[in-house]
Amino acid sequence: MEELINKINHLAHKEKTIGLSEAEKAEQQELRQQYLEAFRKNFKSQISTIKIVDEEGQDVTPPKLKELKEENKGEE
Predict the structure, then answer these.
(1) DSSP collapsed to 3 states, 60-74
(2) Which domain holds residue 26?
(3) pLDDT recorded at residue 6
């Protein structure tokens, strides 16, 4: 992931200084899409581990979050 970010940053810097060729612009868009996919996957994984409990100890996790947990169990 770090290498992906470094490539994105390199192209962004180059775009600001000397500009990008059409091939580099396409590469930049592809790298950004890859980053967003990885970010979303990681975020879903993190959020699916959350369990919300009220003061009385009862599980009050929202239904959408419970559904996401079930989806992630199927992907593992």
Answers:
(1) CCCHHHHHHHHHHHH
(2) 2-75
(3) 96
